[in-house]
Write a structure and sequence with these properties.
mainly alpha; transmembrane; transmembrane helix; membrane
Length: 97
């Protein structure tokens, strides 16, 4: 996959958000909520993501990749057409003399 980094970052963000929410719930249960606790590090590897959610993420990323490829293709076609028009109408008369 061309944009594997997107998928990895998305999964990390989901894990981070879940881990933070889990830690905040624990703090509320224990009655601890201070500035120091908010800055502490959490274990993000302990959070699990369901297969269904992973498949949804993969589908979203694949859609984004397809859109990017389509936009890149259309942009290259548009630029090619502009270059051809530029050559035919602006440069060719000067070459022909």
């Amino acid at each position: 996959m061309a944009f594997e980094g997107d998928m990895i970052n998305t999964i990390k963000n989901i894990k981070n958000n879940r881990a933070l929410r889990k830690a905040q719930q624990q703090k509320r249960k224990n009655g601890i909520e201070s500035y120091k606790d908010k800055k502490t590090e959490y274990d993000f590897n302990s959070v699990k993501i369901s297969d269904k959610k992973l498949n949804e993420i993969k589908l979203e990323i694949e859609k984004k990749i397809k859109k990017r490829k389509l936009i890149e293709f259309l942009a290259s076609v548009f630029i090619t057409i502009l270059v051809i028009i530029l050559f035919n109408y602006l440069i060719r008369p000067y070459i022909a003399g």
